[in-house]
Amino acid sequence: MLHYVIKRVLYMIPTMIAISIVAFLLIQLPPGDFVTSLAAQMSAQGDSVDPTTLAMLRRQYGLDQPIWVQYWIWISNIVFHGDFGRSFDFDVPVSDLLWARLGLTFVLAFTALVFTWLVALPVGIYSAVRKYSVGDYVATFLSFVGLAVPNFLLALVLMYIALQLFGVSIDGLYSAQYANAPWSWEKFLDLAQHLVVPVIVLASSGIAALVRIMRANLLDELFKPYVTTARAKGLSEWRLIAKYPVRAALNPFVSTIGWTLPELVSGATVTAIVLNLPTTGPLLLRALIAQDVYLAGAMILMLSVLTVIGTLISDLLLAWLDPRIRYR
Amino acid sequence: MSIEQSQHELDPTLSDDRGGRNIERAGQWQLAWWKFKRHKLAVAGGIVVILIYLVAAFAEFLAPYGPGDYSARYTYAPPQPLNIWNGESLGLFVNGYSVKVNPDSLAREFVIDPEIVIPVGLFVEGAPYKMWGLFESNIHLIGPLDASDPMYLWGADRLGRDMLSRVIHGARISMTIGLVGVGMSLFLGILLGGISGYYGGQVDNFIQRLIEFLLAIPTIPLWMGLAAAIPPTLSPIQVYFMITVILSLVGWTGLARVIRGRFMAIKNEDFVTAARLDGTSELGIMMRHMAPSFASHIIASVTLAIPAMILAETALSFLGIGLRPPVVSWGVLLQEAQNIRSVALAPWLLVPGAAVIITVLALNFLGDGLRDAADPYSD
C-alpha cells in the first residue's frame, strides 16, 4: 500500500507542473497586458498617459521580461514564499482574496458531494431492486431531466420560485442583518439556509449521473449466484442486498470522486455567479474580464490543484477498498 | 458480407422468414435499426431532434419577425394566447394589450385586453428576409394580418423583441455549434484515439496521460480563461469559430477514449489479422476493415457528446464570455434573464432555457437508444 501511495503522489508532480504552465499560459493569452488596460482606463477618464510611467510600471511588475522568466518568477514565488502576486484590480495581495473564497468553494463542493451520495445511493439501490416499478420510472425520468438542466438555469428557476412563493431573495450567503454580525447560532442557521439552494443545484447533475451508474452496477450484481446462495440461507432481503451486492457495486462511488470534483468545481463557478455567492466563481470571471492576471492565474491554478488532490484521494480510497488495484 | 449472403442463397434452410423480417440475412445496420425502433423513447427523441433541426433550417420562414426587430412600445409585453374561436366564427386571432398602472409599484404594465382583437393569418407577408442568403421573401408561417399590430406569442423582452422569433433564430446557432464542435472533437478523437488504440505502447501511454491531464482541469474555469482571451475585435463568425474550437479542446477526450477502447477490442480479431496478412496498408485496415465495425458505437457517442457542447455554449454565453449579441443563441438570450428582478417581471425570459432542456433531453434519449442499438448482437 505504501508503495502505491508513494508512486501515486510522485505521479502528481508532473501533472501539477503541467497545470501551472497551462494556468500561466491561459492568463497570458489575451492581447495586451494589465498595463495596457490600465492605460485605456486612464485615457478614458481623460487622464494623460505618460509612456515612461507605463514602461516603469511594466518593469516593476516584470512584464518586460521574456515569458519563461515571468513564469519562473510567478511559480517560484508561489512555491517558495506562498506569494501569489498582487491583484492589480483590487490592489491587495492575491492570497488575501484567494483563501477565504477558496475555502468556501471547497465547503460548497464537499457539502454537495456528500448530499449527492446521500440521495443517489438509496435512490439508485431502490431503482435497481424495484426495476420497472413506478418509483424506478420516476427516478429514471428525473435523472434524465437532472442531466439536461444546466446548473445556472436551475438556480435561476429556484430563485424565481423562492421570490414568487415566499417573497425572499435567496442570493448571497447571509441575510442583510447578519452580513457583518459576529458569529452566532442564528448567523450559522442563516448561512445554512442560504446554502440549501446552491447545494441542491450543484448536486443535481451529479445525483442524476450516479443514480444511473448505481442502478446499472447493482443490476449486474443482483442476479449473481452468491446472492441466490445468501437468499437460500434465509437472510432477510434488505439485509442481504445491503451486505453483499451493494458493497460490490459501491466501487464506482469512490472512483467517481475523481470526475465529480472537477464537475462540482466547474458547476460551482457558474452557479455562484448566478446566486451571487462569495466563492471563486464571480471573482474569477471579474479577474478574467479585467485581465487581472495574477488573480485569475492563482484561481485557475488553485481550482485545478484542488481537483488533482480530489482525484488523488479517490484513487487512494479505491486502492484501500479494492486490493486488486494496489498490486496492479 | 457478400460471401455470407451468397451462402444464405445457396442454403434454403437458412432463409426462413419471420414475419417479414429475415433475422439471419439482415445486415448489422438492419438489425441495429430494428433494435432502435423498439426503443420508443429514443424514437420520440429522434423525431424531436429532427424537428428542431428543421426549425433551425427554416428559421426565417417560421419566425414571425426577424431576430433583431424591436418595438420600444411593447417592452416586456406578456405572451398572448393564440385563439381560434371568437364566439361566432373560426379564425386565428390574439388579443391586444392595454396599459395599466400597477397600484403597488406604480410601474406601467401591459395586460391582455380581450376587447382588442388582432386577426392572425398563416403565410402572411411580414418583414423581408433572405432565405439562406439566397432567396428573397417576406412570407412568414404565422403573423398578424396587419403588420403594424403587435403579436408576441411568447412575450417580448427588454427592447420589445419577440421571444418566439428569437428562440427560433437562436436554434440555428445553438444547434450547429453542437454539430461543428462535435465534428471537430470527432476528428481529433478518431485520430488520437485511433493511434492510441492501434499502436499501443509508449504512444498510447503519452496520449492517455494527455487525456487524463485535460480531464483533471476543471472545464468551466478552463473555458472561461480561453473564452476571455478571445479578442473583442473579432467578427461574430470568428468568435463562433473560436468558441467551437475551445469546446472541442476538451470534448475530444471522451470520444478518443471510446474509440481507443474499440480499437483495442478488435485489433486482434481474425478479420484484422487476415487483412494484415493480405498486405493491406495500415490506414486501409483502420478505415476499410476496423472503422465500419464500430461506426455504430461512434455515432452513439457523438450523439451523446452534442448535448454537452450545447450546454457548454449556453453557460459561456450566459456568463457573457461566449457568443455576444447581436448573434442570437439560446445562451445569449438567457443573458437577459441574468437579473432575477427582470425574471420576476417577465418570467417568459426563461423560455430559451426550456428550449435547451428539451433539446438536450431529446438528444440524450436518442443517444441512449442508439447506444443500445449499436450492438445489435447483444441479445
TrEMBL record, chain A:
A biological process from GO: transmembrane transport
Keyword flag tRNA-binding: no
Gene3D superfamilies, A to Z: MetI-like (1.10.3720.10)
SUPFAM superfamilies reported for this sequence: MetI-like
Bilayer topology term: Multi-pass membrane protein
Transmembrane spans: 9-29, 98-125, 137-163, 191-211, 253-275, 295-321
Lineage: superkingdom: Bacteria
Compartments, as annotated in UniProt: Cell membrane
Keywords: Cell membrane, Membrane, Transmembrane, Transmembrane helix, Transport
InterPro entries: BPD_transp_1_N, MetI-like, MetI-like_sf
All copies of domain ABC transmembrane type-1, residue ranges: 102-314
Organism this protein belongs to: Devosia elaeis
Similarity-based family: Belongs to the binding-protein-dependent transport system permease family.
Protein name as annotated: ABC transporter permease
Cellular compartments per GO CC: plasma membrane
